[in-house]
Amino acid sequence: MAEILRRLARSxxxxxxxxxxxxxxxxxxxxGGTRIEIKGVPRIPLIPLLTYNEAMRQWNLLRLxxxxxxxxxxxxTFATVTTDVTRLLKKTRFQPITSAILAGMKVLCVSLKGFKxxxxxxxxxxxxxxxxxxxxxxxxxxxxxxxxxxxxDSPSETIASSEWNTLKRQ
Length: 170
Hints:
Helix content: 25-40%
CATH class of the largest domain: Alpha Beta
CATH architecture of the largest domain: 2-Layer Sandwich
Order of helices and strands: HEEHEHEEEHH
Largest sheet: 2 strands, antiparallel
Number of helices: 5
Structural class: alpha+beta
CATH superfamily of the largest domain: GAD-like domain
CATH topology of the largest domain: Gyrase A, domain 2
Distance between the termini: 57 Å
């Protein structure tokens, strides 16, 4: 449909046809999911790939929800424990935490009961559930410097294993 409209508008000779001159908003949803709007797609050929990626993301998030339910984690049972661990990580070699502490920020540890292994759940190609959380932290808390979260499902990429062990004992 978008291609037909593009050709029709172009046939008038009064429409600019450069890349990005017409932008499309695309709504995507899967059974059981919510409708998501992808705003301002600049080129019609991008629509199938963007639609596929969003549909896969929603489908994988629904599978993740089912896995959490299987583990007994529901809206009603979901609980977190947050601990200030700034003093425990003052000597870490992980630069993002060192920089944050030097800037006067706190380092908080959030324990997510029942989530072990799920932060590495792939929601899209090369994108994991931890990225979904990180994106929301970025928007809600204005923590725009990445990484804004780290997690024990990928410990080798962050702080030392001895530091993870110390945090797990808290």
